[in-house]
Design a protein that fits this description.
Blueprint (H helix, E strand, L loop, with lengths): L1 H10 L4 H9 L4 H16 L2 E4 L1 E6 L25 H13 L4 E6 L7 H12 L4 E5 L5 H10 L3 E3 L7 H7 L5 H13 L3 E8 L6 H14 L3 E6 L16 H14 L9 H6 L3 H6 L5 E2 L8 H4 L13 H14 L3 E2 L9
Parallel strand pairs: 1-8, 1-9, 2-3, 3-4, 4-5, 5-6, 6-7
Helix pairs in contact: 1-3, 2-9, 3-10, 4-5, 5-6, 9-10
The chain binds 5'-deoxyadenosine, iron/sulfur cluster and FE2/S2 (inorganic) cluster.
């Protein structure tokens, strides 16, 4: 195991078999996390990039089996923020010092291309980077968003396991999702993707395939989090992913893609009260605090136990800055592009 970790740290490559061995064996986890932490420091430094997350609508036309926003969940109150409100939340976030805004929502057509582009152009006036996380779109849409000033797009592949993908995403296809990722790249947007860890029926082999897919795609950002069962979904009785396995998938991803951005995800902190700090010390270099104001945070319930639902953007900003300082790291003042 030590040799595999050393190989990954120096060559940034592993075979599928080697990744599975690392995922299976837990005797050298601390060495794995330490190696990922060294690679993170060497390639992307000690600064942590904060991205302000605006959850602007929880309306979704998809029906992903794991997600609380799925269209068949009648047990949640749906909302969408007005364009002007989205812009105001971004303005406030900019005043707290955020240099990147992430606009996230369920998948829907509530704003047409022109309205989305208007929102992007207005937020761009704040001299911030913009990341969109709004689902599967046409090639033209990705180009239009880029044209309007968007810099990045997040679309997790969720799982590269064809059969599992089909089971969990009725009416969707892995092929189309991969195609969307290609089009995001083609449009000149920075490409973010990632996966869920601990989906029912997911194997270590399939997680190894996910990691190798990230590498093949040469993604600019990879978000990895545990699957957390939601009682308002068909997967309510499943076991869910563990913190440790999610952390291992993340650490191996850092070893294989040394210079990318990797967030310490909110779902990790849901499973461990120190989850984000532990992730930041095991390969991650990004945190995405919520900057949605008011009551909406509670309604954006992908999974139960989501952190910060009763906190304000100002509170989260100072909370996370303090936590980052407590591990000897600092918050970046840059927009945090890959390689920049
Ligand atoms: N547990 C953890 N993460 C989830 N997501 C959706 N539902 C869950 C869940 N139950 C993640 C998906 C999606 C992201 C926005 O939230 O990976 O891409
Ligand atoms: Fe909709 Fe995304 Fe949830 Fe799937 S994961 S139901 S697309 S919000
Ligand atoms: Fe929201 Fe700590 S980041 S309360």
């Amino acid at each position: 195991m030590q040799n595999l970790i050393q190989k990954a740290e120096t060559t940034h490559s592993l075979t599928k078999h080697e990744i599975v061995l690392l995922l299976k064996d837990n005797s050298t986890n601390n060495e794995l996390f330490a190696a990922a932490d060294r690679v993170r420091e060497k390639y992307v430094g000690n600064e942590v990039h904060l991205r302000g997350l605006v959850e602007f609508s929880n309306i979704c036309k998809q029906n992903c089996f794991y997600c609380g926003l799925r269209r068949d969940n009648k047990n949640i109150e749906r909302y969408k923020l007005e364009p002007q409100t989205i812009i105001e939340f971004a303005q406030k976030a900019a005043s707290y010092g955020y240099k990147t805004m992430v606009l996230q929502s369920g998948e829907g057509d509530y704003y047409n291309i022109e309205q989305m582009c208007h929102i992007i152009r207005e937020i761009k006036k704040l001299d911030v980077a913009i990341t969109l996380s709004i689902g599967e779109k046409t090639e033209e849409e990705y180009f239009a968003y880029k044209q309007a000033g968007a810099d990045r797009f997040l679309l997790r592949i969720e799982t590269t396991d064809e059969e599992l993908y089909k089971k969990l995403h009725p009416g969707m296809s892995l092929e189309n999702r991969k195609n969307c990722l290609k089009n995001i790249r083609k449009a000149g947007l920075e490409l973010g993707t990632g996966c869920l860890v601990g989906l029912p029926g997911q194997t270590l082999e399939s997680l190894a395939d996910d990691i190798l897919y990230f590498k093949k795609l040469n993604a600019d950002m990879i978000g990895i989090g545990p699957f957390i069962p939601n009682e308002n979904t068909p997967l309510r009785d499943e076991a869910g992913g563990t913190f440790e396995l999610s952390l291992k998938v993340m650490a191996i991803t850092r070893l294989l893609l040394p210079d990318i951005n990797i967030p310490a995800t909110t779902a990790m902190e849901t499973l461990d009260p120190n989850g984000r700090l532990i992730a930041l010390q095991s390969g991650a270099n990004v945190v995405m605090p919520n900057v949605t104001e008011g009551e909406y945070r509670k309604l954006y319930e992908l999974y139960p136990g989501k952190i910060c639902v009763n906190d304000t953007p100002a509170h989260c900003r100072s909370c996370i800055t303090g936590k980052i300082a407590s591990i000897g790291r600092s918050v970046s003042n840059a927009k945090g592009f890959r390689g920049g």
